[in-house]
Recover the amino acids of this structure.
């Protein structure tokens, strides 16, 4: 247990540096028209503003509540701010002006712009987090001061029972689930907005790359939304199961799995930070226009 | 295969935008560019790209639906229901020559020479193709 946290931190630093430098080298050489330059500047500024506001909110949140809920929600709240920044940036992209306007005969879909591997990793982490939270919520009990879902109590025999905490029951899981669900809904709205905002001129390659960057930021924000709180939930659950006087059957296996998840989740969070710092927009599939027969 | 020209709307044209769009879709379906089962651009996407109200594009789609050219399904978008007429290579060739003849007639009325006609065509081709490569 003692080595898991520093090892994960070291891993995070290495991954953030590697991802950011690799992505900078893969960034598209974009040739921008005036409209595209304006759109790129607007969306990037709002994303950075969201991230900056998120860091402030995270610092304030981390200092709130001595029982760890503020610290647990710090990064998810930062991710929410990034998502708000993406939405506002996309909403501020100018609509086409002028008397003659054109539109490609195409169907743009959200999945055309999602980064494949990152989306799969974030989706898996989100699913696992919801399963773990459901289990810890169902098995949580009130602690010695009556705070619901903050302890893991278990009757060992007819005369002996034991409890350990803190346990990620409803005391922690309810606010976390609320923020995660709000973040996922906001991410869905942001992705729809990224796809539906007006095209900026007829050069679809650069416009699609900008949409790809925004979609990467949305998925990376979702990754931050779930990865670090999930790492914390895993650490708490593993510690409580390990320290229980009569742990349930199979708990030693669960402890090993939960501890193994921590570096993986910290690595995922680091990957997401790398993507947020240096989005490339190169990993998407451009929407296929309808082709005319010859 | 060639990429079809983009949809265009001229807001200074006395023809209302929904009708301009409707005509272009009828041509696209009639010429076989949009075949049976092909998905039409989503309403909100097309409205945003053209800077039009969603209701304007919705009216175009409603008119096309009334004419039996497209069908909308909840959650499935709007799809082309049937090509207005089968489009063979010979027919396309005939239609192309017909349109070219109309263009040349209009150019002659403006007093254009053969070279002027060719130059105008060369200037307009990349614009109408939407900057997309054609083969």
């Amino acid at each position: 247990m003692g080595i898991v946290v520093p090892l994960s931190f070291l891993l995070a630093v290495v991954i953030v540096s590697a991802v950011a430098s690799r992505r900078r080298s893969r960034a598209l050489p974009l040739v921008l028209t005036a409209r595209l330059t304006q759109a790129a500047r607007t969306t990037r500024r709002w994303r950075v503003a969201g991230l900056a506001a998120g860091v402030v909110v995270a610092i304030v949140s981390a200092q709130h509540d001595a029982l760890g809920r503020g610290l647990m929600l710090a990064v998810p709240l930062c991710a929410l701010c990034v998502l708000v920044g993406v939405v506002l940036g996309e909403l501020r992209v100018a609509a086409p002006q002028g008397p003659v306007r054109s539109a490609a005969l195409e169907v743009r879909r959200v999945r055309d712009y999602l980064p494949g591997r990152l989306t799969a990793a974030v989706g898996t982490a989100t699913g696992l987090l919801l399963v773990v939270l459901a289990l810890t919520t169902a098995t949580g009990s009130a602690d010695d001061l009556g705070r619901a879902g903050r302890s893991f109590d278990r009757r060992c025999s007819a005369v002996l029972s034991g409890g350990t905490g803190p346990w990620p029951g409803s005391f922690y899981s309810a606010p976390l689930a609320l923020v995660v669900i709000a973040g996922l809904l906001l991410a869905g709205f942001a992705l729809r907005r990224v796809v539906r905002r007006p095209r900026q001129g007829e050069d679809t390659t650069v416009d699609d790359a900008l949409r790809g960057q925004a979609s990467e930021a949305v998925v990376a924000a979702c990754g931050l939304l779930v990865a670090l709180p999930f790492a914390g939930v895993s650490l708490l659950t593993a510690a409580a199961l390990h320290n229980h006087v009569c742990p349930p059957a199979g708990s030693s296996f669960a402890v090993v799995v939960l501890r193994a998840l921590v570096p993986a989740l910290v690595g995922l969070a680091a990957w997401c930070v790398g993507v947020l710092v240096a989005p490339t927009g190169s990993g998407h599939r451009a929407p296929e226009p309808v082709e005319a027969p010859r | 295969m060639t990429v079809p020209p983009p949809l265009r709307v001229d807001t200074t044209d006395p023809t209302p935008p929904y009708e301009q769009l409707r005509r272009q879709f009828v041509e696209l379906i009639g010429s076989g560019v949009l075949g049976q089962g092909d998905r039409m651009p989503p309403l909100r996407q097309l409205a945003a790209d053209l800077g039009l109200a969603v209701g304007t594009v919705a009216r175009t789609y409603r008119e096309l639906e009334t004419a039996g050219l497209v069908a909308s399904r909840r959650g499935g978008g709007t799809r082309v229901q049937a090509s207005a007429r089968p489009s063979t290579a010979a027919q396309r060739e005939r239609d192309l020559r017909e349109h070219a003849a109309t263009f040349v007639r209009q150019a002659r009325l403006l007093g254009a020479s053969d070279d002027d006609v060719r130059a105008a065509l060369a200037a307009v081709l990349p614009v109408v193709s939407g900057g997309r490569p054609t083969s």
Summary: Residues 89-128 of chain B form one domain. Chain B has a mean pLDDT of 84. The interface with chain A takes residues 1-4, 6-12, 28, 31-34, 38-42, 44-46, 48-52, 77, 87, 89, 92, 130-132 of chain B (CB under 8 Å).
